[in-house]
Design brief:
single chain, Immunoglobulin-like, five-stranded mixed beta sheet, 2 helices, globular
């Protein structure tokens, strides 16, 4: 299993704001390209699809640990970064897919190129200092223990 660059952060707000600004700029370009006519919401969705690829993910809790699995086929481990806070995880990567004329005529291609960006909130606070990430066969696996003070305790109920 390949290791993946993981960075502990206090907040993911800056990353979300940067992505929001990139999408807003592209949506505005699309809007201006039609001289201001049309569907501005549709422009936003088109810009988002054009700039960002959101991989399929699974978030599982078991035995005091969260496991996040993300499908990143065709992405090299060196191109993946994981930022983790006590509340969230952000997965980013560069995805590149190119065609060359010497390999034949392309009739259909559904591969995506661009920035992979996926943020997930954890249902409970985690101990980000103990998070681990690995990548194998196109699957990113992140494990992080739930913070001790966030674990639920069963409380007995008394009746009067």
């Amino acid at each position: 299993m390949s290791s993946v660059l993981m960075t502990r952060k206090d907040s993911i707000v800056d990353q979300l704001e940067q992505l929001h600004q990139r999408i807003a700029r592209r949506a505005y370009e699309l809007f201006r390209g039609r001289d201001g006519w049309g569907d501005s919401f549709g422009d936003w969705l088109s810009a988002e699809r054009e700039l960002v690829w959101k991989p399929a993910v699974e978030l599982r809790e078991q035995d005091g640990t969260f496991t996040v699995v993300a499908a990143l086929p065709g992405v090299a481990a060196k191109d993946i970064t994981v930022d983790i806070t006590p509340q969230d995880v952000v997965i980013q990567a560069a995805s590149d897919h190119r065609h060359t004329e010497d390999k034949g005529h392309i009739h259909r291609c559904e591969f995506r190129a661009g920035q992979v960006f996926r943020s997930l909130p954890f249902p409970k606070a985690v101990d980000a200092t103990k998070a681990k990430a690995g990548y194998q066969n196109g699957m990113l696996n992140i494990t992080v223990p739930i913070a001790p003070d966030a674990r639920a305790e069963q409380v007995g109920v008394t009746t009067a």
